[in-house]
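#lab-general

N.A. 3:47 PM
ok so I finally got the sequence cleaned up, no stray characters, all 441 residues accounted for. can someone with queue access submit it? mine expired

B.Y. 3:52 PM
send it over

N.A. 3:53 PM
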Amino acid sequence: MFGYYLSLALRGLRRNPGLTTLMVAAIGVGIGASMTTFAVFRAMDGDPIAYKATQLYVPQIENWDPGVHSLNSSVGPDGLSDALSYTDAVALMRAHAAPRQTVLYETRFAVTPPDPQLLPFQAGARAGYADLFAMFDVPFAYGGPWSAADDQAHAPVAVVSRALNDKVFGGGDSVGKVLRLDGQDYRVVGVLRDWNPVPRYYDLQDAFGLLPDDVFVPFTRAIDQHEFTGESSNCSGPQVAPGWSGLLQSECVWLQFWVQLPTGAAAARYRAFLQHYAQDQQRSGRFHWAARTRLRDLRQWLSYEHVVTNEVRMMVVVGFAFLLVCLVNAMGLMLARALFRSTDTGVRRALGANRGAVFAQGLIEAAVIGAAGAILGVGLTALGLAGLRALLSREALVLARMDLPEVGMAVLLAIAAAIAAGLYPTWRATRVQPAWQLRAR
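B.Y. 4:20 PM
back already:
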């Protein structure tokens, strides 16, 4: 029977091509608008390491006088900064209260290729500890991370991205080769596979960076070499001393700090450790206030940092509200079509078709309209995302894409929406009295 109803639906839709086109357009435009905004929202709200979202944590310490909080934009709504000072980061690393932990900060290097025909170039880099690779499940193509002994020895070692490896060494296994960074020789210990999580949760100051980090070096080595751009530092006042040593002694915050805690009990112990550490700093005279601390897991951290802004959420609401308006219009068109075909429906009923058969045919027609609207909607979504790619910054291009799950969702949403819009018109069609329609003829 499904094939019979489908053939009737297709013949019925071809009978009024203008009205059918309007119904398909209403569904397609609504799907296109809503799915364009939803695709951007889904990319921004993604959890790139969901299986560890409750194991990765960011500690925060109130190292600034609460009286200066309102003077600096780096402080969050709860009065806590989203980064740590060098003093706190090094102290937490030495305490080693977590099974895995790392300090992170962004810097840059001047790379001098071994091939004299290649010109030196700037490469984005990340300084951290060896634990970062296991904590963030960073994939390797060759070699692996440096060791904890390398961290302790301030060793000149580096892990490089696939892109930099291809550019400098021509691809392949370059483990053991020498990479010259800022005039210093570093031994390559690992080459990464493609890895650029979105959002870049480990550094939300560049949450949607288009380019991955090209070089990873030990934090201790980078500190020795004064490797820091200074772009992400925030201070509550002037440094106690000028220059690099002054930054390390100051209360300026510029370091991300991550710990991996496998259980809720381990997280509770680390919270207690943080609070005791802050109390010790107060007793030592460094703080003259009762410093607050927080420990947030990855999902809480993404929410705290407002990775998905209220404007984006409102954009999604507006997109789906527009879809609702389009569905109301489609419902009106379907109702007009059902009333226009009431005579045909009366004849079918007089020939023996029951209300269930008429209702089934109407829903199949609505599903066909939805499928056609889905094809149009996916096309409009792709067009909308292409328009966003032309308007957005290069760093935000990664958001303007549509993956297979979005395509499947658009198709299912369009068909379901069309069926929902067709319920009332189809129900009205089943109320047709055959005798009245035959007498009218």
